[in-house]
């Protein structure tokens, strides 16, 4: 999936997102809904989502991770994987919001 995101990132400057394991979220959601929430969270954090490619993964036991590629000036830069754990509660919409804030923070440093 990451290779596909990289190929897309070089040809289309918009935002793209793919998500797996979204049935583990409470309430269960679709991959598109998870990506829509992530995009909104990035915007709230002040990140222009153009040129950002994200692969979200939700897995047991409460681990959410994101692989992020930013494209600027025709050059793709992959960030180190970003992971968060929700060991004391079920993963849900707030988990996506937390990932969005973490991604925004890392993108701001680049």
Helix content: 25-40%
Order of helices and strands: HEHEEEEH
Decide which structural class fits the backbone.
alpha+beta
User: What is the straight-line distance between the termini?
Assistant: 23 Å
How much strand? 25-35%
Q: Based on CA inertia axes, which overall geometry fits?
A: globular
How many strand segments?
Answer: 5
C-alpha Rg, in Å?
13 Å
Notes on the structure:
This protein has 110 residues and is of the alpha+beta class. Helix content is 36%, strand content 28%. It is built from 3 helices and 5 strands; from the N terminus they run H-E-H-E-E-E-E-H. It has helices spanning 2-11, 31-44, 93-108, and strands at residues 16-20, 52-59, 63-72, 75-78, 82-85. Strands 1, 2, 3, 4 and 5 form a 5-stranded mixed β-sheet that branches. Strand 2 (52-59) and strand 3 form a beta hairpin. Helix 2 (31-44) crosses helix 3. The longest helix has 16 residues, at 93-108. It is globular, with a radius of gyration of 13 Å. Residues 4-11 have low confidence and may be disordered.
Q: Could you provide a short overview of the structure?
A:
The chain has 110 residues and is an alpha+beta fold. It is built from 3 helices and 5 strands.
Quick tags:
36% helix; alpha+beta; single chain; 5 strands; 110 residues; five-stranded mixed sheet; globular
Helix/strand layout:
Blueprint: H1 2-11, E1 16-20, H2 31-44, E2 52-59, E3 63-72, E4 75-78, E5 82-85, H3 93-108
Parallel strand pairs: 1-2
Antiparallel strand pairs: 2-3, 3-4, 3-5
């Amino acid at each position: 999936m990451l290779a596909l995101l990289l190929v897309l990132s070089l040809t289309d400057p918009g935002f793209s997102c793919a998500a797996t394991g979204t049935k583990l979220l409470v309430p269960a959601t679709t991959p598109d809904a998870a990506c829509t929430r992530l995009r909104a969270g990035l915007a709230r954090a002040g990140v222009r989502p153009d040129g950002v490619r994200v692969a979200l993964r939700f897995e047991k036991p409460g681990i959410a991770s994101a692989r992020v590629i930013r494209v600027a000036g025709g050059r793709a830069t992959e960030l180190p994987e970003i992971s968060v754990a929700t060991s004391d509660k079920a993963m849900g919409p707030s988990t996506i919001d937390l990932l969005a804030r973490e991604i925004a923070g890392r993108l701001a440093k680049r």
